[in-house]
Specification:
It is a single chain. This protein has about 260 residues and is of the alpha/beta class. It has a single domain, classed as Acetylglutamate kinase-like (Carbamate kinase, 3-Layer(aba) Sandwich), CATH 3.40.1160. Strands 3-6-2-1-9-13-14-12 form an eight-stranded mixed beta sheet, sandwiched between helices. α2 packs across α4.
């Protein structure tokens, strides 16, 4: 059956400039759009949510991405894991309230990394959730690292790893902009929209991309494009859309034409 990966970006579901503040109204609306799309068309769905103003705050404070570097690092692991899981539970609850059978999948308990690259992810429970036509919800999280002690793995990295096993038909990233621009559209009103990125024009566009607005320890838009290119190399198309625009996520799930950037081979 058709399988889609959908990321709900941290900038979309939280107020990234206000620590530990989720966008309750938008989360509820997105959950309803997802349910409406699943009622209209039969497809399986894996959702990943970004961290936004939840785990990125303690991750930056304790420099968790760098590994276990001092006496406070273990407290940082606990704080980041707790913050990430709290936001994830908010997303799962909204999906359940919208009549979807969503189940949280906690990466920190199922994943091992080596120098910030995933080397193991026990995904069989996640695969069982999909087979039951339920929705597994993963998220960017702190993980234990065989070299550094710990590290941060983004939702995009989990998507790339899981795509090798699950082979989704496409991947959708919902953020707060219409897609990719050649400059930060929040800072540069002359930023030009990029409708398509391919293996041929990727390097040219990459030099013009920058990180995301607000705190983001996973690298922002540039990191997302890099991971989309890895998917494109496997023949999997990705779409970057504005999830804050009404029905944009629903229409993208139903493969209707929407404003956005497509990344393909």
């Amino acid at each position: 059956m058709n399988l889609i990966f959908l990321k709900l970006g941290g900038s979309l579901i939280t107020k990234k400039d206000i620590p530990f503040s989720e966008n309750k109204f938008l989360i509820k609306r997105l959950a309803q759009e997802i349910h409406e799309a699943r009622k209209e068309k039969n497809f399986r769905l894996l959702i990943g949510n970004g961290g936004g103003s939840y785990p990125h705050v303690p991750a930056q404070k304790y420099r968790t991405k760098e590994g276990i570097i001092n006496k406070q690092s273990l407290k940082g692991i606990a704080e980041v894991q707790d913050s990430a899981s709290r936001l994830n539970r908010i997303i799962v609850r909204a999906l359940i309230d919208s009549k979807e059978n969503a189940v949280s999948v906690q990466p920190s308990s199922a994943c091992l990394a080596k120098n910030s690259r995933i080397i193991e992810f026990y995904s069989k429970p996640l695969e069982m959730i999909l087979k039951k036509d339920m929705i597994p919800v993963v998220y960017g999280d702190v993980v234990f690292d065989l070299v550094k002690g710990c590290g941060i793995i983004s939702t995009e990295e989990f998507f790339v790893f899981l795509a090798k096993k699950l082979n989704p038909s496409r991947v959708i990233y919902g953020g707060i902009v219409d897609g990719v621009f050649n400059a930060d559209p929040f800072k540069n009103p002359k930023a030009k929209f990029v409708s398509k990125i391919t293996l041929k024009n990727y390097q040219e566009i990459r030099t013009k991309l920058s990180g995301s607005a607000g705190i983001d320890v996973t690298g922002g838009m540039l990191h997302r494009i890099d991971k989309c290119i890895e998917l494109a190399e496997r023949g999997i198309e990705s779409y970057i859309i504005n999830g804050s625009a009404k029905y944009r996520v629903k229409n993208a799930l139903l493969k209707r034409k929407v404003i956005g950037t497509i990344i393909q081979k």
